[in-house]
User: Which sequence fits this backbone?
């Protein structure tokens, strides 16, 4: 029983990394369907937050940091800036996940929305302090709003197709080991 749990845990970690790499791949394709000055949702961050809230053991800190660092390098953002912010907020969500299990989806969505807004503001401030070109406010706002709006779809995808749901009290303790 413990061996199948461990295999399932590592399989879901691989699925998480594969999904993030797939999102990066499709973001790099030269499709340009969106109008200029419009940024689509950050699906990687939405996926990390959804999984961190529902199954914290599936997204260990090293996987979050590594995935976001690769995304920072691929999308030519300052290396580690977005990775650090996402890691901090995801770990905060993991801590709160157990106590907010029965709070409902609206509380989770509000928490994710606040995290996305704070991350966007901190990113802009950091870019300005580092004297790097900052994103236009319309672009930044479009990315934050679309990520907030797509978050329920990411949760539905994770729950419906991948079976990522809130763990019960026994499951959370059993699956919460660090490997």
Assistant:
């Amino acid at each position: 029983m413990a061996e199948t749990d461990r295999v399932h845990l590592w399989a879901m970690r691989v699925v998480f990394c594969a999904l993030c790499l797939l999102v990066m791949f499709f973001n790099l394709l030269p499709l340009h369907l969106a109008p200029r000055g419009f940024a689509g949702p950050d699906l990687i961050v939405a996926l990390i937050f959804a999984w961190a809230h529902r199954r914290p053991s599936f997204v260990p800190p090293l996987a979050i940091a590594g995935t976001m660092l690769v995304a920072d390098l691929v999308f030519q953002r300052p290396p580690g800036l977005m990775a650090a912010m996402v890691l901090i907020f995801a770990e905060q969500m993991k801590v709160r996940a157990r106590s907010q299990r029965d709070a409902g989806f609206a509380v989770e969505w509000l928490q994710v929305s606040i995290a996305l807004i704070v991350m966007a503001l901190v990113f802009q401030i950091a870019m300005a302090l580092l004297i790097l070109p900052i994103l236009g406010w319309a672009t930044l706002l479009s990315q934050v709003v679309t990520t907030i709006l797509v978050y329920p779809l990411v949760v539905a995808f994770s729950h419906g197709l991948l079976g990522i749901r809130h763990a019960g009290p026994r499951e959370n303790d059993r699956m919460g080991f660090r490997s």
In short: The domain at 2-175 is CATH 1.10.1760 (Arp2/3 complex 21 kDa subunit ARPC3).
